[in-house]
# Entry
Amino acid sequence: MSRFVFLDRDGTLVEDTGYVHRVEDYRLLPGVLEALGRLVRAGFRLAIVTNQSGIGRGYFTRQDFERFQDRLLSDLSQAGIPIEASLLCPHSPDEGCSCRKPAAGLLEQARRELGADLASSWVLGDAVRDVEMAHRAGCAGAVRVGPEGVDLAKAVDTILAD
Ligand SMILES: [Mg+2]
Ligand SMILES: [Zn+2]
# Structure
């Protein structure tokens, strides 16, 4: 079975300036390459799981998202970090979808399409909704990073101790 770490994007891997989507605003957060490298070497598969309601709200387009995402994936790939999928919710909150975090829809998608074993997988994110999604999906655990959580190195320590 496949153990994944599901990664939030904004505020976890890249600086979150609020609906960030312009390549000019792209900033990889410190410690990301080292942290993800450790997870990969430990045998975890990685996927990004991200709410992008800016698309549903009409603030930016799917193509803007893809362009920004390509920049991130290219940096990670050059550092030897494969991201197996970028799973996104493009909906605005009032659309009532089942994929907007904290709903577990994107993790269910990862189970179906990527063969993720959710019970042995982890979530890494900077928001309460990331942690809540992990609980709803029955994941092994979740670690909150960022100003209200721990730093990425500590988060990886927690996951690797599991
Ligand atoms: Mg976030
Ligand atoms: Zn959605």
